[in-house]
Design goal:
The chain has helices at residues 4-14, 48-60, 75-79, 108-118; strands at 22-24, 67-69, 88-91, 94-98. The chain is of the alpha+beta class and 119 residues long. The strands form two sheets. The chain has a two-stranded parallel sheet with strand order 1-2. Strands 3-4 form a two-stranded antiparallel ribbon. Helix 2 (48-60) links the parallel strand 1 and strand 2. Helix 1 packs parallel to helix 4. Keywords: Oxidoreductase, Selenocysteine, Thyroid hormones biosynthesis. Belongs to the iodothyronine deiodinase family. Responsible for the deiodination of T4 (3,5,3',5'-tetraiodothyronine). This is Iodothyronine deiodinase.
Length: 119
C-alpha cells in the first residue's frame, strides 16, 4: 500500500505498452504477526476465504488493474520469490524484468525505466 500511488501511475502511463496484474499473497504485516503503526487491520489468513476478504482492502484502493489471489499454499509467491512483494515484467511468457525483493527493493521507478525502453 505504501507505494500504491506510484504503481497506479505506472498503470496509467504504460497501459498502452503492458497489461498489469496484482497477485495478492500472504499478508506480510498481519496485526497478529509482525505489525507496524498505521497498518491495515488484517490478521494472518487461515483459509482462502480470509485471504479473499483481505484482498478487498486492495480492491477498494482501485489499483487500476485486475487483482488475483494466491492460493493458501503460496504457490505463486514461492515460485516468483515474492514474499513480501516483488515487481516483474513478463513478455511472451518469459521474465524480462525481475525487481528486487520488497519492501526496500520494491521499485516502481525501476519498472518505469524498463517500460520506457519498450515504448
Amino acid at each position: 500500500m505504501y507505494k500504491l500511488c506510484e504503481f497506479k501511475q505506472l498503470v496509467k502511463d504504460f497501459s498502452d505498452v503492458a497489461d498489469f496484474l496484482v497477485v495478492y499473497i500472504a499478508e506480510a504485516h498481519s496485526t497478529d504477526g509482525w505489525v507496524f503503526a498505521n497498518n491495515v487491520d488484517i490478521t494472518k489468513h487461515r483459509n482462502q476465504e480470509e485471504r479473499l476478504a483481505a484482498a478487498q482492502y486492495l480492491v477498494k484502493e482501485d489499483p487500476l488493474c485486475p487483482i488475483v489471489v494466491d492460493e493458501m499454499k503460496d504457490t505463486t509467491a514461492s515460485k516468483y520469490g515474492a514474499i513480501p512483494e516483488r515487481l516483474y515484467v513478463l513478455q511472451a511468457g518469459k521474465v524480462v524484468y525481475k525487481g528486487k525483493m520488497g519492501p526496500r527493493g520494491y521499485s516502481p521507478e525501476e519498472v518505469r525505466s524498463f517500460l520506457e525502453k519498450m515504448k
